[in-house]
Amino acid sequence: EVQLVESGGGLVQPGGSLRLSCTASGFTFSSYEMNWVRQAPGKGLEWVSYISGSDNTIYYADSVKGRFTVSRDNAKNSLYLQMNSLRAEDTALYYCARVDAAVAGGVVFDCWGQGTLVTVSS
Amino acid sequence: EIVMTQSPATLSVSPGESATLSCRASQSVRSNLGWYQQKPGQAPRLLIYGASTRATGIPARFSGSGSGTEFTLTISSLQSEDFAVYYCQQYTNWPLTFGGGTKVEIK
Question: What is the pLDDT of residue A105?
Fold first, then answer.
């Protein structure tokens, strides 16, 4: 069974840091592009970051550029998001999402974790 | 950044009826458009990619159409499990962007 499990969320003060993890199972992790997508409470979806299978291509949303760093460890089937200088507006449920390999040249998400909640508050 | 605008924000439909959801892009995204369904407390589920291709396991009552800047998701004969929030997403340009969502509720 294909599965993504996020962890690492929690309550952090403004200006603080957190590192999110996403552990994959049931598929060849290194063959898939991965992303982070977030959803503020009661709001819509916001794409955060992309990393290619070999991690030589990375993209960020402008809202997190310079503060967040995405990485992966294919040997551990894991995706990470290092979040620094956190702001109240970063409060959200953070999903890791797999890119559908059947969509040639496209980035849509065919598998999602259940999310990990990040709350930035003093 | 390509802005995706969905309408209406809320759609009230009776079970068995059809629903038509719209998504508009601020510039052409060709056919690089996906649709997702999200139920309360759940992660989104991919329904459609390439504007009109159903994802694996998606029932035929879900259909997508459009290209360029205007897209439609049609759900025919709504079932109880179809009441949810629907999002469109473009993947022509970075950053990837989602629409604000359409909530399909029971009338």
Answer: 81
